[in-house]
Amino acid sequence: MDWKQTLKNKLQNSNKPAKRSEQELKDEEMDLFTKYYLEWRGGRKGKSSSYQNIPRFYYRLPAEDEILLQKLREESRAVFLQRKSRELLDNEELQNLWFLLDKHQTPPVTAEEAMINYEHFLKVGDKAGSKCKQFFTAKVFAKLLHNDTYGRISIMQFFNYVMRKVWLHQTRIGLSLYDVAGQGYLRESDLENYILELIPTLPQLDGLEKSFYSFYVCTAVRKFFFFLDPLRTGKIKIQDILACSFLDDLLELRDEELSKESQESNWFSAPSALRVYGQYLNLDKDHNGMLSKEELSRYGTGTLTNVFLDRVFQECLTYDGEMDYKTYLDFVLALENRKEPAALQYIFKLLDMENKGYLNVFSLNYFFRAIQEQMKIHGQEAVSFQDVKDEIFDMVKPKNPFKITLQDLINSSQGDTVTSILIDLNGFWTYENREVLVANDIESTADLEDT
């Protein structure tokens, strides 16, 4: 059936009065188009009556060759994000909100902070405008209500709550602009583009040379993917990025007066990124841009066991037996954050030689023998494996008394200590001499207090 011709004929032969408004003609045209289009596509004939009552919940993504549909989808997403952005409070509206809150303070006034009760809270909500309506609810008020005798909430706490919500929505929209797939997640290249374009807006990174940008972006992105993509799918949910503290740490670099201590502890700061990359260059003695096992053995205090390093090069991605910068970053993130589940998962995989999902006495003995050998080389008295094994099982308290799983390590909160005992001579020495070290710290503190 030629539905185009049928549509034209139907419009021409309509029995309705000749004089009709343009809107009526458009409405009829749309009705007829919908009818014949559904017939052309097969309609819904043969479907049960309940079919029409079920809302559509699946929309097929356009294929690569469906260029028009892809463009339409991109444009519709852009329009949607623009609309969402316009719904957010701008700086002028936020200032107006603060003025209204300050004007409607509820007495008695205290020197600590301005307060507002629920009645005045609702009055401000009525005057603040439609954009603020979502914040002026009983639920929000109850959430911020603590122990005030007069049933009031802090104006500053409420305003900070609004600011935080606006910031989250702004950031969500900003990240969504880089979501090429439009599925609510970012791939590695998407996050790289986001951070690369963010660099000029962060005053703390003004000193970075442009030649270092690619290494900085790689360093920053790696932390997100190491901790938020444990299954190594190559993508992270935008929701997870917003929920973690990494984005806060990154945007903290907007503060021009950020302290030196804060910069050193912030993975995303320029000093921190330069430190990690500088260590990589120092380890790379042959200057080929990659690290061999021998070069990596000098990492940190140079006391990681050869057995553990063998496992690193067996399990991690290497190129002709050498490690690139991205793989090195995963290694550093794991060893510098041994208390974190993602880091323990990384190390546990290396310790679980037979891929059984647990560590048994054989596994522990295999790795600890390398510690014992290093102790002999350094002229230290050998320690009995049986004693160490018993201490490890006592610390972890696994569900199965003969097997230690990754979850056992995480639940015990001793995973960092256990892994250090097995892979690093310096870590084992620190554990063995913990009582002496604590006593020395107490004496040093006392001496400082006396002076």
From TrEMBL:
Q: Which residues form a coiled coil?
A: none
Q: Which PANTHER family match?
A: SERINE/THREONINE-PROTEIN PHOSPHATASE 2A REGULATORY SUBUNIT B'' SUBUNIT GAMMA, SERINE_THREONINE-PROTEIN PHOSPHATASE 2A REGULATORY SUBUNIT B'' SUBUNIT GAMMA
Where found in the cell?
Cytoplasm; Nucleus
Q: Where is the composition biased (Polar residues)?
A: 1-16
Q: Which gene encodes it?
A: PPP2R3C
User: A cellular component term (GO) from this record?
Assistant: cytoplasm
Residues of the region (Disordered) are 1-24
Keyword flag DNA repair: no
- Supply the name of the protein: Serine/threonine-protein phosphatase 2A regulatory subunit B'' subunit gamma
Which residues does the UniProt record annotate as the domain PP2A regulatory subunit B'' EF-hand?
180-256
Q: Which domain of life is it from?
A: Eukaryota
